Fold this protein.
Amino acid sequence: MQINTHLFGELNVTEKDIINFPEGIPGFESDKQYILLPLEEKAPFYYLQSVNTSDLCLLMIDPFIFFSDYQIDLSDHATKQLQLPSDKPPIAVYCILTIPGDFKLATANLMAPIIINAEKKLGLQFIPEKTDYITKHPIFPQSKTTAEEGK
């Protein structure tokens, strides 16, 4: 199947490439199907491209590369939504980035990660009831002057 994208032009994808988000992603509830595209091989950056909306493409990271102590505790409800088995769940975790004018000031939304059941191709944005994470964690170390400029 062919999909049109703003960033990548026309792409050829198969049904097995499509990740279904039954509830959409908050802010984009009507878009339920996406494909995951690595920025480049073995890079920690990924694009989550909508299958139906050509200009809906979210830049994401593998949070464990940038935040080695990052942890999430999925709720039972999220586990059921993703149809995850209790032993060795096949999940992939990503965090959406916000990129200001200077890429060095990019931040990750650690509060509400994107969770994907890699086997069943089901996804959701998990928003926990309680968390110490915020929506704008800098992904690169900030010098004092750089951090002040980003305010």
